[in-house]
């Protein structure tokens, strides 16, 4: 972390965690369906991103057909992710949904092994197993509440898989385009797919109260603020610090849900959630150690 302004960096990290934690709360406050909420969140996000994207005229002209195909595929995965995750919040609590969402790094590890044949250390595998135990505890506790809550847990886990696939699509494309251009087109394609889906399902497009429209706009601005802050902080702190801070979302969201939605944490959620967050944190720490070791090995080889 930058030693000149440690307090400022910490403050921005806290603001980022609070901003991303509002996503689930805002979803609980609207009567719109998951697909409509997702659609408007993405369209409004595209709207405020447009001026920043239009400044990159040279980059926009250089885009090729293959990149638009990647944008479309990434947009489809993102649309599925949002429908599933916002859908999970209809059935289960904010705590359960966001804790399961924190499994994303571990799910990425599993898919990376099968898709890209990426090697995984024994420590990482142990972290994965421990995290799965934590998720099972949450699921077991939610089954005790109702099968509806367990259904929400399943939807949240499926949304994690969709999110990881979305990120995997972007692994190669984002190297050739800026963050602004990639994000804009993926969001636009995702919003388009969701619009088509809502038309096919005859969902309600316009008959909403003013509070719902404010929630649509807030969902496009406040959680997105976290991503902007995190991108800015990469100039001052390493990526692992950012990843660790993202694990604050289940904690922040659960606290907000307690005060704003009166959602109480069960003992299973407390124990299972702690297990998941700690195991994912250990996994990210192990990944950072392995990355540093590989860089040192590469440097030693080049200097030999």
UniProtKB/TrEMBL annotation:
The membrane topology term of the UniProt record is: Multi-pass membrane protein
From the Swiss-Prot or TrEMBL record, state where the protein is found: Cell membrane
Q: Which residues cross the membrane?
A: 7-26, 32-50, 71-88, 94-116, 128-148, 154-174, 181-201, 213-234, 241-261, 267-285
- Main localisation, per the record? membrane
Q: Which Pfam families match?
A: EamA
EamA domain segment(s): 9-139, 151-284
What InterPro entries does the annotation carry? AA-Vitamin_Transporters (IPR050638), EamA_dom (IPR000620), EmrE-like (IPR037185)
Keywords from the UniProt entry: Cell membrane, Membrane, Transmembrane, Transmembrane helix
**Which domain of life, per UniProt?**
Bacteria
Q: Does the keyword Transferase apply?
A: no
Q: In the UniProt record, which is one GO cellular component term? A: plasma membrane
Q: Which family does the record claim for this protein?
A: Belongs to the EamA transporter family.
Q: What's the protein called, per UniProt?
A: Multidrug transporter
Organism, scientific name: Gottfriedia solisilvae
């Amino acid at each position: 972390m930058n030693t000149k302004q440690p307090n400022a960096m910490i403050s921005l990290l806290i603001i980022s965690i609070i901003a991303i934690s509002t996503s689930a709360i805002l979803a609980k406050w609207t009567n719109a369906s998951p697909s409509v909420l997702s659609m408007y969140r993405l369209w409004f996000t595209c709207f405020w991103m447009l001026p920043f994207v239009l400044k990159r005229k040279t980059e926009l002209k250089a885009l090729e057909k293959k990149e638009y195909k990647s944008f479309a595929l990434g947009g489809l995965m993102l649309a599925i992710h949002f429908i599933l995750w916002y859908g999970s919040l209809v059935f289960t609590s904010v705590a359960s949904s966001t804790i399961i969402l924190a499994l994303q790094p571990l799910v990425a590890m599993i898919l990376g092994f099968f898709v890209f044949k990426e090697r995984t250390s024994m420590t990482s595998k142990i972290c994965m197993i421990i995290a799965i135990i934590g998720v099972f505890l949450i699921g077991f506790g939610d089954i005790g509440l109702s099968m509806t809550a367990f259904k929400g847990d399943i939807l949240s886990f499926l949304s994690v898989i969709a999110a990881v696939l979305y990120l995997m699509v972007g692994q190669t494309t984002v190297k050739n385009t800026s963050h602004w251009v990639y994000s804009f087109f993926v969001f636009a394609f995702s919003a388009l797919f969701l619009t088509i889906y809502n038309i096919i399902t005859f969902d309600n497009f316009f008959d909403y109260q003013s509070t719902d429209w404010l929630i649509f706009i807030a969902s496009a601005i406040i959680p997105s603020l976290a991503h902007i802050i995190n991108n800015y902080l990469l100039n001052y702190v390493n990526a692992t610090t950012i990843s660790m801070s993202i694990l604050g979302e289940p904690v922040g969201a659960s606290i907000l849900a307690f005060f704003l939605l009166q959602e109480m944490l069960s003992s299973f959620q407390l124990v299972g959630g702690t297990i998941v967050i700690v195991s994912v944190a250990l996994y990210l720490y192990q990944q950072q150690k392995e990355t540093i070791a590989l860089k040192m090995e590469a440097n030693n080889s080049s200097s030999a």
